[in-house]
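Need residues for this backbone.
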């Protein structure tokens, strides 16, 4: 096996190439941002409607779509495994898996303990994953979406709990669905 000494210029070129490959992969998958933006919006707004109509005992039922969405996402990416993943893509994927599992565990098992703080905490975790994605693929759009989610999560701590699902639904449209559509359009050009 032959090893080659890399100059600083060659190293920078290699790093740039890896980042661009990761960026291309995620832009091709702008669909997944659209998918999750729509899914979270539907679940959140449905919860808000249930709460407003005083269906308190079943208000969390729409979130049973999340595990189904996770299974679909796994299936979607497993079909796309034809292309070789680079290290940046792996890091982003693993970060999202860990964050998603934590969000589902918090929502389904610790919701009664967190009460009105559940949605802001989930939004903070969501913002971390979004910002990691934005930074690693050098997408200002995704990074800005993560920042918006984070600021909104902090504001949600002061929002009446019944309106927090509505806020999360609106945020999902603004920070996932719309950027996902933009990424898909950019990729098709």
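Answer:
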């Amino acid at each position: 096996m032959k090893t080659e000494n890399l100059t600083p210029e060659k190293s920078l070129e290699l790093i740039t190439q890896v980042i661009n490959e990761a960026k291309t992969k995620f832009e091709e998958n702008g669909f997944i941002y659209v998918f999750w933006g729509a899914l979270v919006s539907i679940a959140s707004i449905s919860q808000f409607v249930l709460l407003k109509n005083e269906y308190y005992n079943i208000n969390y039922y729409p979130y049973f779509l999340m595990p189904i969405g996770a299974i679909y996402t796994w299936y979607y990416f497993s079909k796309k495994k034809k292309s070789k993943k680079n290290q940046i893509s792996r890091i982003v994927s693993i970060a999202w898996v860990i964050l998603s599992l934590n969000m589902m565990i918090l929502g389904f098992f610790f919701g009664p303990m967190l009460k009105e703080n559940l949605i802001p905490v989930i939004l903070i975790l969501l913002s971390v994953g979004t910002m990691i994605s934005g930074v690693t693929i050098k997408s200002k759009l995704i990074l800005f979406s993560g920042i918006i989610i984070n600021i909104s999560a902090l504001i949600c701590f002061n929002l009446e709990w019944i309106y927090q699902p509505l806020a999360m639904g609106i945020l999902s449209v603004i920070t996932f669905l719309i950027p996902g559509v933009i990424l898909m359009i950019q990729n098709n050009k």
